[in-house]
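Lab notebook: predicted structure, single chain.

Context: the supervisor wants predicted structures on file for every construct in the current expression panel, including those that have not yet been purified. This is the next one on the list. No modifications to the sequence; it matches the entry in the shared construct table.
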Amino acid sequence: MNTAVLNTEVQEFINKNLNTDLPGLVLKQPELPDVTTDDLIQQIESKKRCEKKLPTWFHSKNIYYPNKLNIEQTSSERTADYKSTLISGKSLIDITGGFGVDAFYFSKAIDQVTHCEINPDLSQIVTHNFSALEVENITCIASDGLEYLKNSKDIFDWIYVDPSRRDANKSRVFFLKDCLPNVPENLNILFDHSKDILIKTAPLLDLSAGLNELKSVKQIHVVSVNNEVKELLWILQKGFSGTVEVITVNLKNKKTEIFQFNLEEEKKAHAHYSEPLSYLYEPNASILKAGAFQMIAEKYKINKLHKHTHLYTNETLIEFPGRRFMIENVIPFNKKDIKKVGIKKANITTRNFPENVKQIRQKFNISDGGEAYLFFTKDLKEKKMIVVCNKIE
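Prediction complete. Output recorded below exactly as produced.
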């Protein structure tokens, strides 16, 4: 950590050049005392990435930024804020601290937070930034969090783990046992120091695979931001052996969509089926990731279009955790009928359909955008059809 970066003239230069062409900046080689061009590029690149993802850091003075990879790997403020609503108590240890965004939000809900980061340079940066952000209830420790726990006698109300999805060779991995640290292998150590554990995993992890690797899972939170799944959160409680509850969350700009169910309910639920009626419903990304295909139909009393098509329909408009559409027309999938409708511009979605969006656009010369929404799918008799809709805001 080069503290000269925090000098007033350097900070002013960084802020003035956030939108500057970086290769051009390298050629200019600005002369600032004790600061290299590489230092400046790192600060500019990383700060720019924080503008929307981490606005608190971006708009605060004297923040020191690590390399851009650390920023890419950290939680966003929106998801970190949500995580902070899941925990309570007096103490929490984050054994994979990183840039400290989660720890920052945990500190708003927990009396004392311990932030462990194996990279001493990053730990130093985070310590400085917490001071700049005027956070006083986080203790930073430059250490492997798991090893720290092994050598500690402390008991915490919560342990938080965000395992690295890259192995020792920096290759991307997907199973928990291949991540660093290996959580399944070390669960007993974690439970020796807390009865409650919160684990963050990437959205690509299959829920059934995670359940096979872990034990004592009480809840799974599937968290999306504006309909894009960002992370899975696993709450483990020592000795828990009941039914796993799944909470799907879609953090939208103006509201939050929440739908929850348990895995046993989904196994027992039965959806009714029908042809497209007056309205079409598409569950949000968190619900689709969680696999609540029967429960969503049962709870909202809506019909599925097909066993393998996770689109739903009914005759009466309802509030729904996802997108809603008014059905204008249903046409067979053929050039003659599509030509009759005369749609040259539309938003296209495929569900349980053999051709992808790109192929369809090329085949029927339909450009992207406009007010029409076309769902290419199959009916109950396996015939290909197009459901022509208008979106309901």
